[in-house]
Amino acid sequence: MSRHLAVKAVSTACLFALSAGFVFASVATDDSAARVQKILTDTPLIDGHNDLPWEIRMLFGSDVVAAHLEVDHSAHPDPAAPHMMTDIPRLHRGQVGAQFWSVWIPTSLQGFEAVQVTLEQIDLVKRMVATYPHDLEMAYSAADIRRLHRQHKVASLIGIEGGHQINDSLAVLRQMYDAGARYMTLTHTTNTDWADSATDSPKFQGLTPFGETLVHEMNRIGMLVDISHVSAAAMKAALKTSEAPVMFSHSSARSLVDHPRNVPDDVLTLLASNHGIVMVNFYTAYVSAERNQWEADHAAEKTRYNSPPYSGLYIGQPERAKAALSAWEKAHPIPVTTLAQVADHLDHLKKVAGVDHIGIGSDFDGMEDTPVGLEGVDHFPALLQELMRRGWSDADIAKVAGGNLLRVLADAERVAVKLSQQRPASSVKFNSTAAH
User: Known catalytic residues?
Assistant: First the structure.
């Protein structure tokens, strides 16, 4: 063979190899869907936070039947129909194995009213599950999740999203556990009487002594301590106090988006030592720094045009204020937030906290819009496929999908068995004078 022919042969071989490599890469990429399906067949996908119960209360007057969860709302032909991110067909398409349903109530509800409305929301979840017994079933333990996953049902768990919902009572806390709640977020958007919120002015620099007692009691009964929504100081105090792994049911990485709802790196390091979990949030302003800035700018413009009762360029002139804000919005379109940016947060959380301490906490039906590519509960597999494209192993995917949360829940259950044998239920009463 001549030198020219030899070079040509080598070039042809290289081109074939490159082409084959391209085909292989394409096949491998296409194969990610099958890989994810296999993983989620073996490991339940567990979402840490979904606000559908409050949506049903607001949109349908708590009438579960009227919500028609058996219908795929993403394909609803009526544009005037309520926009929902969750329904049973999409839960199954998204291969959701377990869902923590949030029984959130507004922080404007306090005292005995807060307790009542929380119980009404717990009742709503149970009625929702009873309405669709072939698809949903209540779950109260890690073992329940695994059993229901084998039965191809969505294990339905309850999470209380705010310490204001127990009226500062350990007795109410215990009764909420007996009613089915398996986590409680220590605060929501405002401080409780014993813990600082991430989005309120600091009052206690973390937790009060009653707050610490409450964390110990949650450990004793087996209720997960959720530190989404709390201040960084309260995060650290809870991590120091808790005798069991804690969770962030729906939070992202503060190093990527400097929003107080996200988790700082030093807290992520402490979380790993606690063997807890941070479940990444899809809320656009927590995922995208550009969207977070836009939200702040938008709020400032709204205030500038009309800030009753004393200020604003167009105060007392609502139509002029509305027109001015519309013009600003047209000149400053909302930045697009994407599935890839959510994956960026998972990459960072994995790097700092470790792959054993991360999960998914979508916040579906608790936000006005979603990242592109994550429009509803049917899109969870797409996020896992993106992680695969970034080099995450199948074992890593299984952990973030649900394996880590199963471990955290089982660990909390084991701690509760031990602590309940060591000490009785706490009789400590909240003392408002001591708290302040």
Answer: 49, 51, 161, 188, 229, 250, 363
